[in-house]
Specification:
Layout: E1 4-9, H1 18-29, E2 34-39, E3 45-47, H2 51-56, E4 64-70, H3 74-88, E5 114-117, E6 119-122, E7 125-133, H4 149-173, H5 176-189, H6 192-202, H7 208-224, H8 229-249, H9 251-255, E8 265-269, H10 274-279, E9 285-290, H11 298-305, E10 310-312, H12 317-321, E11 326-330, E12 335-338, H13 342-367, E13 379-384, H14 387-395, E14 401-405, H15 407-410, H16 419-433, E15 438-441, H17 476-489, E16 495-499, H18 505-524, E17 533-538, H19 541-544, H20 547-550, E18 556-559, H21 561-568, H22 587-602, E19 606-609, H23 620-626, E20 630-633, H24 638-645, H25 650-661, H26 666-675, E21 690-694, H27 699-712, H28 719-732, E22 736-738, E23 741-742, E24 745-748, E25 755-765, E26 775-784, H29 789-803, H30 806-814, H31 818-828
Parallel strand pairs: 7-8, 8-9, 9-10, 13-14, 13-20, 14-15, 15-16, 16-17, 17-18, 18-19, 19-20, 21-25, 23-26, 24-26
Antiparallel strand pairs: 1-4, 2-3, 2-4, 5-12, 6-10, 7-11, 11-12, 22-23, 25-26
Bound molecules: phosphoenolpyruvate and magnesium ion.
Phosphoenolpyruvate (PEP) is lined by residues 403, 405, 444, 539, 560-563, 610-611.
C-alpha cells in the first residue's frame, strides 16, 4: 500500500497550539491510516492522532512539516488532511486585545491614589475587594498509602470518565468561545499519548498521585522549552487537567485549592487555570489581575468571553500586600488603582454617571423597534446556535430569531440528537420568543461543518459538495427526524423553517413532500403538531437570480451573505490566503442583492439577511437602502445596530446604494461609503448638547463632561481622541476669552455631526483666561473636518462679535431652558 506525503508550511501566527492541534487531531482520528507529522526545523516527529504529540513537535509560524500517511484508508485520509490543512486550519483571533494601553486620563493626573499600570487583556471597569488566589506549589497529597496496581487503574479510569462527563456537561452549556476551550481540554484528556504516558508512569509509582504529578512535571519541562510563548502557555492547560484529576481522586486535598468569594471581588493571581477560573463564583467575581502576561491563555479568553476586565503583568508586590482592600480596575485605561483619593472618587463617579446614561440609552434603543430616522422599518433579529442563546437575544432587544443554526446541535458529539432532544430545543426557543418570529434552519452539515458520526466523504471541494439540503437524500432518516421535531415544536409558537443551500425548485418540492409525510406520521400517531411556514436560504447565486421560480413554493427568503459572497466571488470564505478577495464591498454583490430584494418584493415575499454582512456597521446604510424586511445578527450587536439605524436616512441610503452599484471596484465602494452622506442631517444646535447646570469643578472635568455629552448625543464615537484634540489647542493658547467665558473648539474627523454645545457651570473654574477671571460659561464648537472652512470661520466670528455685548452674555447665562438657548443661538448666529 503506498504512502502519501504532504508538505505543510505553518501559517498560524501562534504556531500549532492546542486549539488548531485539536482540530487537526479530530480530522486524523476519522481514519484508520497512520499519520506521522515531522517538523523539518527540529526533526521532531509525532503521531498526528495525538494533540500532545503534535504539540511536542513545537511547530511554529513558518515551520515546514512533512506529513506521511500510510495504511488502509491512506488515500482518503491524505485527501481530507490536505484539504483541511489548506482550507480549514484556521486561527482564532486572540490578538485583537492586549496592547499596552496605559493612558492616564487628564483628570487623574493630580490624583495621589496608588496607580498600577498593566496590560489590558480585556477592557472594562470594575471594582471590588482584592482577593489573592494564592495557589501553593503543587505538591503530593500527604499520608497516601501505597495503592495496588488494580486499584490505581480503577481510580484512574473512574476519574477520567468523571472529568470527561463534567467537561462535556460544561461544554454543552457553554458559549462558543468557552466551548472551544473545553473541547480542547476534552481532547487532551482522551489523547493517546497522555494516557500512554500516564500508564507508563503508573508502573513505577507507589500511588496514582505520584504518577499524575510526574506527568505534570514532564509536560511542564517539555512545554516550557518551546520557543513559542503561546505553546508555553499550554502547560497551564495540562497542569489544569492533572490537577482536576487529582482533585477527583483525592477530594480532601482538593478542598484547600478552591476559593470562595463572598462579596464583589477582584482576584489577583500569579496565574489561574481555566478550571480554577470557571470554579470562581461569577456573581461575585468582577475582574482579574494576573501577574503573567498571558493574553492568549485560555483563562484570559474565558474571562473575555464573560465580558470581564482583565489586566496582566501585575507584578508589583504592593498589590499582594493590599489584599482585603478595595481595588478599582480600569482596563479601558490600562491600570488598577488603590486608595482612591477624592480626585479619583470624583473622576469615576462622573464616569459612572455617563456610563449609566449610555446604558439607559442603549436599553431604550434596544427595546425599540428597528427603524431609520425617516421612519423606514428594518426588523433587527438575532442569530443563535442553541436554545439558551434565545433568551439572551430577546433580553438584548432581538425582534425575532432570524437564524437558528441547528447543525450546532449535531456537532461535537458521537450520536446525532434524537427527536425528543431536538423538539425540546426548538420548543424552548419558541417559548422564549413568546410570539415573536423564529426562523429555524434545518441542519447545514458539510463544507466547513462536518460531523464525526456521518461517513466521511472524500471531496476535493466540500464547499461545492454534499452540504446543506444536498446531503438530506443521503441522510433522509436524520432529516425526517428533524422535521418531526420541528412539526411538534410548532405547537409552541409561529415557526418558520428554512432550508440551506437550495439550488433548484425541485429540492423544495421534495422537502415539502417529506414534510407532508412526516405530518401524516404524527397525525396517525396522534402526536400534537402544527404547520410551519417554509423558506429558503438564498446563498447560491443561481437561486438568487431565479427568485421568481421559487416564489410559488416558499413563504420567505433569507440571504446567506457568507456563502453568497464566497460563491459569487469564487473565494473560499475560510481561506486566509485568499481573504483579500472576499470583498463584501464588491459592487457585483450589491448589484445582485439589489436585484434579489426587488424580485422578492415584486412577488410579495418577505426577505431578510442573516450573514455576517448584517453586523458590519460600514454597510448598514446599504443594507437599509436595499429595503430588506429584516437583518439577523449576533446578539451583542443588536442595541448598537438599532442605535445606528435610528440615525440613518433611508432615502439617502437608497441613493447611495444606486451610486455604489455603478462603482468599478470595492475600493470605490468603500470610498463612497466614507464620503457619502447618509446620516439624517442634524442641526448644529440641539437641546441634548446644552448643559444648564454643570457641576464640573475644573477645566479637565468641563472638557471631559462636554465631550461625553457629545458622545451620548451620537455626535462622536471617539471621545478620548476628541478630548485630546481640544486639549492640544488649549495647551497652545487658552480659549478663555475673558468675561467668564471660554470657547474651546476643534475641527476634526472624529466629529461626525458638527455641534455647538454650551455648559453653564455652577462653580466657575480657572481657565487660564487673559483677564484672569474664572469661567462659568463654556461655548464649545466642534466641527466635522469635511465641513467647509468658511462655515467654521463664519460661525466663529459671529460668535466672537456677539460676545462683545454684555446683553448677549447675560441672555446666554439666563436662558431658562435648553430650547431657549438653542433658539437664542439660532437667531443671533443666523443659523
Ligand atoms: C450564510 O451563508 O451567510 C449563512 C448565514 O449560513 P452559514 O454561515 O451558516 O453558512
Ligand atoms: Mg451558508
Amino acid at each position: 500500500m503506498p504512502n502519501y506525503k504532504i508538505e505543510y508550511r505553518c501559517l498560524l501566527p501562534h504556531g500549532l497550539h492546542a486549539r488548531p492541534a485539536t482540530q487537526l487531531e479530530a480530522v486524523c482520528q476519522r481514519f484508520s491510516a497512520s499519520i506521522e507529522w515531522c517538523n523539518r526545523r527540529n526533526g521532531r516527529c509525532a503521531n498526528a492522532k495525538s494533540v500532545l504529540a503534535l504539540l511536542s513537535t513545537d511547530t511554529l509560524h513558518h515551520d515546514v512539516c512533512d506529513i506521511v500517511v500510510s495504511g488502509h484508508d491512506a488515500q482518503c485520509a491524505a485527501h481530507s488532511l490536505r484539504h483541511f490543512l489548506r482550507y480549514e486550519l484556521n486561527e482564532q483571533d486572540d490578538s485583537a486585545v492586549g496592547q499596552n494601553s496605559f493612558v492616564m486620563p487628564r483628570n487623574l493626573r493630580t490624583s495621589h491614589s496608588l496607580i498600577f499600570p498593566g496590560l489590558a487583556a480585556n477592557t472594562g471597569f470594575a471594582r471590588g475587594q482584592l482577593v489573592l488566589f494564592d495557589v501553593p506549589e503543587p505538591s503530593l497529597p500527604v499520608d497516601l498509602a501505597v495503592e495496588e496496581a488494580n486499584e490505581q487503574q480503577r481510580l484512574l479510569q473512574s476519574a477520567l470518565a468523571q472529568l470527561q462527563q463534567q467537561l462535556t456537561a460544561q461544554h454543552r452549556q457553554a458559549s462558543a468561545q468557552t466551548a472551544q476551550i473545553l473541547r480542547a481540554h476534552l481532547s487532551l484528556l482522551s489523547d493517546i499519548t497522555f494516557q500512554q504516558k500516564l500508564s507508563a508512569l503508573l508502573s513505577d509509582s507507589p500511588t496514582l498521585a505520584h504518577a499524575i504529578m510526574q506527568l505534570q512535571r514532564d509536560y511542564q519541562t517539555q512545554f516550557m522549552a518551546s520557543d513559542s510563548p503561546y505553546l508555553q502557555e499550554r502547560e497551564l492547560d495540562l497542569r489544569d487537567l492533572c490537577q482536576q484529576l487529582l482533585a477527583l481522586i483525592y477530594p480532601t486535598w482538593a478542598k484547600a485549592k478552591t476559593l470562595q468569594l463572598h462579596t464583589a471581588s477582584v482576584v489577583l493571581a500569579d496565574e489561574l487555570t481555566p478550571s480554577q477560573f470557571l470554579s470562581l463564583d461569577r456573581q461575585h467575581l468582577q475582574a482579574l489581575l494576573l501577574t503573567h502576561a498571558a493574553r492568549t491563555s485560555h483563562t484570559v479568553i474565558l474571562a473575555r468571553a464573560a465580558g470581564m476586565p482583565v489586566l496582566t503583568g501585575m507584578y508589583d508586590s504592593r498589590l499582594t500586600q493590599a489584599a482585603g482592600q478595595m481595588v478599582w480596575v480600569d482596563a479601558n485605561a490600562g491600570f488598577c488603582l488603590l486608595q482612591p483619593d477624592a480626585i479619583a472618587e470624583r473622576y469615576y463617579a462622573l464616569d459612572e454617571q455617563i456610563k449609566q446614561k449610555r446604558l439607559q440609552q442603549l436599553q431604550i434603543c434596544s427595546q425599540a423597534p428597528g427603524v431609520s430616522a425617516d421612519g423606514q422599518r428594518l426588523e433587527i433579529a438575532a442569530n443563535i446556535a442553541s436554545a439558551p442563546d434565545a433568551l439572551l437575544a430577546f433580553q438584548s432587544g432581538a425582534e425575532g430569531i432570524g437564524l437558528f443554526r441547528t447543525e450546532m446541535l449535531f456537532m461535537d458529539r458521537e450520536q446525532p440528537p434524537d427527536e425528543e432532544e431536538q423538539f425540546q430545543a426548538y420548543a424552548a426557543v419558541l417559548t422564549a420568543a413568546a410570539g415573536k418570529p423564529v426562523i429555524i434552519r434545518t441542519f447545514d452539515i458539510g463544507g466547513d461543518k462536518p460531523v464525526a458520526y456521518l461517513p466521511a466523504i472524500a471531496e476535493t471541494n466540500p464547499y461545492l459538495g454534499l452540504r446543506g439540503i444536498r446531503l438530506y437524500p443521503y441522510q433522509e432518516t436524520l432529516f425526517r427526524t428533524q422535521l418531526r421535531a420541528l412539526l411538534r415544536a410548532a405547537v409552541h409558537g409561529p415557526l418558520k423553517v428554512m432550508l440551506p443551500m437550495v439550488l433548484q425548485p425541485e429540492e423544495v418540492i421534495w422537502a415539502r413532500q417529506l414534510i407532508a409525510e412526516e405530518q401524516a406520521v404524527l397525525q396517525t400517531a396522534d402526536i400534537p403538531h402544527a404547520q410551519f411556514s417554509l423558506g429558503i436560504m438564498l446563498e447560491i447565486p443561481a437561486a438568487a437570480l431565479q427568485i421568481s421560480a421559487f416564489c410559488p413554493l416558499v413563504d420567505f427568503f433569507s440571504i446567506g451573505s457568507n456563502d453568497l459572497t464566497q460563491y459569487l466571488l469564487a473565494v473560499d470564505r475560510n481561506n486566509p490566503q485568499v481573504a483579500r478577495y472576499y470583498q463584501s464591498a464588491h459592487p457585483a454583490l450589491w448589484i445582485l442583492l439589489q436585484q434579489m430584494v426587488l424580485q422578492a418584493q415584486q412577488h410579495g415575499r418577505w426577505i431578510g439577511l442573516c450573514g455576517e454582512l448584517a453586523s458590519d456597521r460600514r454597510f448598514l446604510p446599504l443594507l437599509l437602502g436595499l429595503g430588506l424586511d429584516e437583518l439577523s445578527l449576533a446578539t451583542p450587536q443588536i442595541a448598537e445596530t438599532k442605535a445606528l439605524l435610528s440615525q440613518l436616512n433611508a432615502g439617502q441610503c437608497r441613493e447611495l446604494l444606486t451610486k455604489i452599484c455603478e462603482c468599478a471596484n470595492s475600493e470605490q465602494v468603500l470610498a463612497s461609503l466614507n464620503t457619502g452622506s447618509v446620516a439624517e442631517v442634524r442641526s448644529m444646535l440641539s437641546e441634548e448638547c446644552m448643559t444648564l447646570q454643570a457641576d464640573w469643578r475644573n477645566k479637565a472635568e468641563v472638557l471631559k463632561g462636554m465631550v461625553d455629552t457629545l458622545w451620548l448625543a451620537g455626535r462622536t464615537q471617539q471621545a478620548l481622541q476628541l478630548e485630546e484634540t481640544l486639549w492640544q489647542r488649549e495647551e497652545a493658547y487658552s480659549t478663555g476669552l475673558g468675561h467668564g467665558i471660554a470657547i474651546p473648539h476643534a475641527k476634526t474627523d472624529v466629529i461626525e455631526h458638527s455641534a455647538i454645545s454650551i455648559a453653564r457651570l455652577t462653580h466657575p473654574v480657572d481657565w487660564g483666561s487673559l483677564d484672569g477671571q474664572p469661567v462659568d460659561l463654556v461655548i464649545m464648537l466642534t466641527l466635522n473636518a469635511q465641513q467647509g472652512a468658511d462655515e467654521h470661520l463664519r460661525i466663529f466670528s459671529r460668535l466672537a462679535r456677539r460676545m462683545m455685548y454684555d446683553e448677549f452674555r447675560q441672555q446666554l447665562r439666563q436662558a431658562p431652558t435648553a430650547a431657549a438657548l438653542c433658539a437664542l443661538l439660532q437667531q443671533e448666529l443666523e443659523m
